[in-house]
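Let us work through a complete example step by step.
Step 1: write down the sequence.
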Amino acid sequence: MPIIASLWWWELRQRWLVVLGLIASTLIVISTASSTPVFTAAAAAVGIAFFPLRYQMRLVRWSVVGGLTLLHLIMKAPVWHLIARVSAVGGSTGYHRYLLIENFIHRFDEWWFMGVRSTAHWGWGQEDVTNHIILQGVTGGLVSLVLFVLLIAEAFKNAGATWRAVRDAPREVWLAWGLGAVVFAHLMAFLGVSYFGQGNVILALHLALVGSLFQSKCKAPSFAASSPASRSGMPHIRDVERGIMEPYVSFT
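Step 2: predict the structure and record it as tokens.
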């Protein structure tokens, strides 16, 4: 949804397609009748809504961390127990997800080295690992978990560096910010589902889009200026990029 919304500034004559895409995406989320897609869509909307505060995101991040830390200190239950209390639809399995996080923390000695064969012995229904972050730990151990967290952190960092690099081009700023909002939406989805099959492909695609845009906007100029291609009269990388992007952004 954030990527669709960011295309609003790319082709003025085709904005009706953006509206149609957002309506279709919203209907798909509603049709799932599930809390995770609803909260994921809400996270995407929040990510887009924070665009006016893009220069204050460091303050926003630390405010969120401070708020969660304060809640953890004053609540009787751990702060991740909030997952069990929040539900967008009836019949939510938030308590199962809370127990999964609880067991993941308290059974650190079981999975930290190389993961664990099964989590079924953690409790009733715990064989269903409905948390993509926890899945990295139970299938690959602590190293796998840390690398995955670093990958997501790098995606956020690259998205931030990209919109700063193109701050004078509103369309590209919105595209970079939209990709960052997509990663944030994935982060929310991680708390309620573990990806498999095409879900992993979509995640990899979005991370690749962030990295590709970062590479073209933040790394390409210096590379192109020093490359033999630029000195031999071959097309500049920006010209090649423009030729690739124009069909995409014009919805043709």
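Step 3: interpret the result. The chain is about 70% helix and 0% strand.
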